[in-house]
Task: inverse folding
């Protein structure tokens, strides 16, 4: 029996063009409608939609899922599922898919870029008398998933030493310049610390900040609060320390930017033309895979 969507609703996704919409229509045989935000979706349409594609900023809560009685599939245009009530989706038998691995290299490149820019004075208001090199410095990586692994390889390529802490150890990466360490050792021995943990996952505590060396650099590209803002502000009160955020991670820490040594880079670490294309392709492929599997 072949499974098709009848009503496919797309919310908050701006990367799909007319050709993509025609493709979705051709593989699903559905009526496809696009909306800017979930609140705008017509009330009569919610009970009829059986497919839903959303951005990572579109909140899909239990109350909406319970109204969407025919909904069988949700596709998210990104890796985070924090915008979806997964408990309700599972209970109601709704399959949820996301797109992963689309920006590992891009985020790693961003970390190296801002570290270089800070070292050479580009991110400082005053050019330092003696800029420093990253070669020979120690990079601490917290979270050695796909992005952390990409960063590890880039850092190793420019002669940095790497310490990492992760829930899952990666012995295949370890050599004389890459070592697994306890979290307290990573934060206390690293010149630059880069965070790569799941959204809204606690990565650092006040005690971890107190262990960091003076003149350390913290780079955050994670979604949501992964440490207390008060702890970071206290750490930044030592003026030799620096924290760098991309535009996405900065949203969770507005007060910290009153500190002169907190830097917000007005760009998203993940966003390149290549990564946006991978998100788009992954979103379409996930929908196609669901339709194929549901037909068997």
Result:
């Amino acid at each position: 029996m072949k499974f098709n969507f009848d009503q496919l609703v797309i919310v908050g996704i701006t990367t799909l063009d007319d050709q993509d919409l025609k493709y979705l229509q051709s593989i699903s045989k559905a009526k496809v409608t696009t909306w800017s935000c979930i609140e705008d979706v017509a009330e009569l349409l919610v009970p009829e939609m059986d497919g839903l594609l959303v951005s990572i900023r579109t909140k899909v809560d239990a109350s909406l899922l319970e109204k969407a009685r025919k909904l069988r599939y949700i596709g998210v245009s990104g890796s985070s599922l924090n915008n979806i009530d997964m408990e309700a989706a599972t209970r109601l038998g709704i399959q949820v898919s996301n797109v992963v691995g689309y920006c590992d290299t891009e985020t790693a490149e961003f970390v190296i870029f801002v570290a270089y820019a800070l070292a050479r004075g580009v991110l400082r208001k005053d050019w330092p008398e003696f800029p420093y090199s990253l070669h020979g410095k120690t990079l601490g990586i917290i979270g050695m998933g796909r992005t952390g692994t990409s960063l590890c390889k880039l850092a190793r390529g420019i002669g940095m030493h790497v310490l990492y802490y992760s829930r899952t150890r990666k012995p295949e990466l370890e050599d004389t310049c890459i070592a697994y360490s306890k979290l307290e050792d990573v934060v206390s021995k690293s010149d630059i610390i880069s965070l790569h943990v799941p959204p809204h996952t606690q990565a650092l505590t006040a005690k971890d900040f107190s262990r960091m060396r003076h003149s350390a650099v913290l780079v955050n590209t994670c979604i949501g609060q992964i440490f207390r803002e008060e702890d970071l502000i206290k750490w930044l009160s030592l003026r030799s320390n620096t924290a760098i955020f991309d535009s996405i991670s900065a949203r969770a820490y507005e007060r910290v930017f009153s500190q002169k040594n907190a830097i917000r880079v007005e760009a998203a670490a993940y966003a390149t033309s290549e990564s946006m294309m991978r998100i788009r392709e992954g979103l379409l492929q996930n929908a196609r895979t669901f339709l194929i599997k549901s037909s068997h």
The mean pLDDT is 93. The two ends are 7 Å apart (CA to CA). Residues 273-294 form the longest helix (22 residues).
